[in-house]
C-alpha cells in the first residue's frame, strides 16, 4: 500500500504495528524505571485509514490515546475475563491502555480514517514493545481466537 495523501501531508511514516505515525515529542528529562533509564515521556501522532488496523501488541507502560479527528477508533484489549473494547471519539477523547495489556485498534465501521495521538510516560523505547505471536495468544486467550487471528498476521 502506498502512502495516503493524508499521511503524506502530515509527514507520517509506516508504523510496525500498522497505520502511520510521527513522533512529535520526546522529553529531554530521563527517569529510572524497572527496565532501565527512559525518557520521561513521548508522544506520537497516529493515523489509521479505513480498512487499516493496529496489530495486537503490548507495551510495558501505560499508553494514553487522544482522539484528534476523523471517525471513532475501537481499541480491543485482551483481559483475563475476555475481550474489552474501548471507544475513542469526540465524546470520549482519551483512553488509557494499561501497561502489559495486549491490544489492537481499528477505525469503527464507516470511518474513512482516525487521527489520534499516543502518549507514554515513561517514554517509548523499542525494548518495551512486543508484537503478538498468534499461537502463544491463542493458548493464553482461547476465547478470543477470532480477534487474535484477525489482528495478528
Describe the structure.
This protein is mainly beta. The protein has a single domain (5-150), classed as Jelly Rolls. Helices cover 12% and strands 48% of the residues. It has three helices and 13 strands, in the order H-E-E-E-E-E-E-E-E-E-E-E-E-E-H-H. Strands 1-2-5-12-7-10 form a six-stranded antiparallel β-sheet. Strands 9-8-11-6-13 form a five-stranded antiparallel β-sheet, with no helix packed on it. A two-stranded antiparallel sheet has the order 3-4. It is globular. 30% of the residues are buried.
Name the average pLDDT: 96
**What is the N-to-C succession of helices and strands?**
HEEEEEEEEEEEEEHH
The CATH class is Mainly Beta
**Neighbour order of strands in the largest sheet:** 1-2-5-12-7-10
Strand percent estimate: over 45%
The CATH superfamily turns out to be Jelly Rolls
In total, the number of strands is 13
Instruction: Give the tally of structural domains.
Output: 1
Give descriptors for this structure.
153 residues, mainly beta, 3 helices, 48% strand
Layout of SSEs?
Elements (H helix, E strand, L loop, with lengths): L4 H6 L2 E2 L5 E7 L3 E4 L2 E4 L2 E8 L4 E6 L3 E8 L2 E7 L2 E7 L5 E4 L4 E6 L5 E8 L8 E3 L2 H7 L4 H6 L3
Antiparallel strand pairs: 1-2, 2-5, 3-4, 5-12, 6-11, 6-13, 7-10, 7-12, 8-9, 8-11
Summarize the structure in short.
This protein has 153 residues and is mainly beta.
Amino acid at each position: 500500500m502506498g502512502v495516503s495523501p493524508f499521511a503524506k501531508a502530515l509527514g507520517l511514516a509506516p508504523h510496525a504495528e500498522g497505520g502511520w505515525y510521527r513522533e512529535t515529542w520526546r522529553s529531554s528529562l530521563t527517569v529510572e524505571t524497572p527496565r532501565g533509564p527512559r525518557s520521561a515521556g513521548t508522544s506520537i501522532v497516529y493515523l489509521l485509514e479505513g480498512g487499516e488496523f493496529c496489530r495486537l501488541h503490548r507495551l510495558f507502560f501505560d499508553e494514553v490515546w487522544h482522539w484528534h479527528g476523523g471517525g471513532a477508533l475501537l481499541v480491543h484489549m485482551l483481559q483475563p475475563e475476555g475481550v474489552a473494547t474501548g471507544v475513542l471519539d469526540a465524546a470520549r477523547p482519551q483512553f488509557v491502555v494499561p501497561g502489559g495489556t495486549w491490544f489492537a485498534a481499528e477505525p469503527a465501521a464507516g470511518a474513512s480514517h482516525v487521527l489520534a495521538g499516543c502518549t507514554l510516560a515513561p517514554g517509548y523505547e523499542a525494548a518495551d514493545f512486543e508484537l503478538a505471536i498468534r499461537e502463544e495468544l491463542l493458548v493464553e486467550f482461547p476465547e478470543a481466537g477470532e480477534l487474535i487471528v484477525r489482528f495478528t498476521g
